[in-house]
Amino acid sequence: MTTNNVIIAGGGIGGLATALTLHQIGVPCVVYEAVREMRPLGVGINLQPNAVRELYDLGITQSDLDGIGLPAREWALVGLNGNDIYAEPRGELAGYHWPQYSAHRGQLHMMLYNKVVERIGADAVKLGQRVTGYAKTANSVTAQIEAADGATSENNGALLIGADGIHSAVRAQMHPAQPPIHWGGAIMWRGTTQGKPIRSGASFVGLGTHKQRVVFYPISGPDPKTGLSMINWIAEVTLDNSDGWKQSGWFRQVPTADFAHHFADWVWDWLDVPTMISDADSAFENPMIDRDPVSTWQDGPVALLGDAAHAMYPTGSNGASQAVVDARVLGAAMVAHGVTPDALAAYDAQLCGPISQLILRNRGAGPFGLLNMVDERCGGTFDNIDDIIPPAERTAFMAGYKSAAGFAIEKLNRALPTIAKDAKARV
């Protein structure tokens, strides 16, 4: 048995951001990650300005982020006949002090992993080992660990952070009566295709209705020779989910022919969706899933973080961003309260309630709710959007979402750093 101040279950984006934060404030930690080898899995992801701010404060540079993605310049919703519903600048173009980044999720993950190894050491992340449960004592917590070969062990620490994803074993023990994973009926197919960026050259575009839509955005700059970028896309349809999800797993690779027919006639002079789908190297299917909010993320010396705490629909592009923010708020609580359950209580009090509401807001389509409104009022086809949803109503809708998600421009720009420079926690 070894002793570490903080044990982190899960080496995803949230777990690694937590490790980097704890190292910054002088708190020893160890990460247990189930996979035997870190690999750059996944496709596109968006980092909102509130998360980029925190990454910069962690010493992750603009150059680091430019190596895995590019600053987003525009967010736009488009109706079925190709007319704009809503468009706005993003990141620094919108007035934020920080950019928004569209990046490759796997490369972001590997960048964070490499930073942890570089700063904390090669043994900071224990691969091929997962936390299966925990036991609390008066002044500490014991994590139960299972290795890939089936061997079991324990590790004792002051705190345990469950950052082990939507299938979290830590959450399952903390909330044994939680309902099963929630599926609302939407199925997503994800892929990447080499293509020419449209509009601003770094635009995030949502096209269609709440029942059937395509989302796409570049996650790399254009190649100097070809002018093509890596375009991340998500194709989505909503089905009858009364019988529940029937596939054996939640994520699988599928041929594009399995779903391309849903979008066969989605062709405009500025976009050819069938070609974008068919030209992908591979495609992956998964249902749009989340978990019902829970009343607390804390059980004494144990706390949940990231998807283990708040798995949410990706409609707001803020799941990973919130995991980074979680890590920083947790670190700030430890600066204020030490490496104690009191720090976890402060973290829980600040985030659990508001982010639980965000889960439900995203379940209601998040910022894509404008597509629902257009569909309800005119069936998704219109000549002038102002006749369907007045500009003030559209602006108010988006402002409400930004405020709920924690990246309202004025509030974020005014905010003091989550963790003061050179701050340390009492260990």
SSE inventory with pairings:
Elements: E1 3-9, H1 13-24, E2 29-33, E3 44-47, H2 49-57, H3 62-66, E4 69-71, E5 74-78, E6 84-89, E7 101-104, H4 105-120, E8 125-127, E9 129-136, E10 141-147, E11 152-162, H5 169-174, E12 182-195, E13 203-208, E14 212-218, E15 229-238, E16 252-254, E17 267-268, E18 271-272, H6 273-278, E19 283-290, E20 298-299, E21 302-304, H7 307-310, H8 319-337, H9 341-363, H10 369-378, H11 391-405, H12 409-414
Parallel strand pairs: 1-2, 1-11, 2-8, 5-13, 11-21
Antiparallel strand pairs: 3-7, 4-7, 5-6, 9-10, 10-11, 12-15, 12-19, 13-14, 14-15, 16-19, 17-18, 20-21
Helix pairs in contact: 1-4, 1-8, 2-8, 8-9
- Cα shape: globular
> Cα-atom Rg, whole angstroms?
21 Å
Q: What is the CA-CA span between the terminal residues?
A: 20 Å
Structural class: alpha+beta
CATH architecture of one domain: 3-Layer(bba) Sandwich
Strand content: 25-35%
Question: CATH topology of one domain, what is it called?
Answer: FAD/NAD(P)-binding domain
Per DSSP, the total helix count is 12
For the secondary structure, the number of strands is 21
Mean pLDDT: 92
Percent helix among the residues? 25-40%
Which CATH top level class of one domain fits?
Alpha Beta
Molecular structure report:
This protein has 427 residues and is an alpha+beta fold. It has a domain of 193 residues: 3-Layer(bba) Sandwich (FAD/NAD(P)-binding domain). Strands 1, 2, 8, 9, 10, 11, 20 and 21 form an eight-stranded mixed beta sheet that branches. The protein has an eight-stranded mixed beta sheet with strand order 6-5-13-14-15-12-19-16. It has a three-stranded antiparallel beta sheet with strand order 3-7-4. Helix 1 runs parallel beside helix 8. The two termini are 20 Å apart.
